[in-house]
Amino acid sequence: MARKKEYLEEEVIEKAMALFWKNGYETTSMQRLEKEMGINKFSIYSSFGSKNGVFVECLNCYKQKLNVLLEKLLVSDKGIEGIKEYFYDFLEFSRDENSPKGCLITNTANELGDNAEPEIKAVLLKFMNEVRAVFAEALSKEGLSPDDIESKADYYIISMFGLASSSKIFTKDQISTYIESIFNKG
Amino acid sequence: MARKKEYLEEEVIEKAMALFWKNGYETTSMQRLEKEMGINKFSIYSSFGSKNGVFVECLNCYKQKLNVLLEKLLVSDKGIEGIKEYFYDFLEFSRDENSPKGCLITNTANELGDNAEPEIKAVLLKFMNEVRAVFAEALSKEGLSPDDIESKADYYIISMFGLASSSKIFTKDQISTYIESIFNKG
DNA sequence: TTTATTTCTAAACGATTAGTTAGTTATTGA
DNA sequence: TCAATAACTAACTAATCGTTTAGAAATAAA
Asked: What residues make up the domain containing B161?
């Protein structure tokens, strides 16, 4: 007994995510979101509540895309070599047509830092721990001690954070050489 | 034959820098700058022309502080070990009272990225190249081939960028372990 | 002491921000 | 066909953004 919605929430979120990913949270205005999502402010607010609400959904949407790469790492059973491949997969993932966008999660942590809304902070922390857990799982294939697994998981999650940040400003070739250096050690 | 300025530009820039360093460019408003610098908007604009002008001076002020650490690396003559010490020096430098602020240059590159004003972009690029050159100079003490020097300088400048970004969200202990891993290889 | 010059305060500028709301249009069940 | 309901458009908040400006206050040379 009412009018039908003329958009799918999953579809408009995907478009919003592209905008946040490219330009960051603060720079992305509701006005630009309206234009890019193709729907009115009223619709945005009735579907997602606030700009923050849109953003949280975008982070979840982004994480789903990352999950494809993480899934591949999990089933590959390749240990550290699998993590290296994940780094390269991410390098491809974070660039389209030579325009590097980095990682939406890393970008957000960098941009908002401690000033982030508690909800955003919680989402970021959860994501970081999930990725770290996947690294730990991959490392468990290497026959390391539990302590070694933890410390190496720390090392790779920090490397991943640094890589994601760096991939925005250095060239693909520079980053490739960097990835090789990360894994070329005893 | 005129009224005297009631502030020193170097002093108010130092205070502005602390604000930009902590909160980033966009989040730092002219209103907060007035408060923190202790001078009126009129004075800010007559001394520095624009918000961007204030920021450029802050970047230069920040670079001067970094130069103390870079100078130490240059005169130490310790090669790669000197770079490692520089990483630890930076770790101390980027934190006061457990509040990590990262690196103002890295933060800016992360926040503004390609959308940065051309003047800002130029300053960032210049800084990055200067730090890289210092790394290359330190590496020349290791008896490496010119090609090896260049590729290793690339590696350490990217590591430095990643380290600076990471130092904002990981603990001091995690970062210390990370630095050790960077340098523990053949 | 007057006058020219500069810095100061404080109010205002127009543009833009996130968010709201009144009123219209479309859809569905009765 | 008509009333109820939800989604639409578009104008509108109030606040804040970076920037400008008019006028008062202070300084130093004449």
From this structure: 9-183
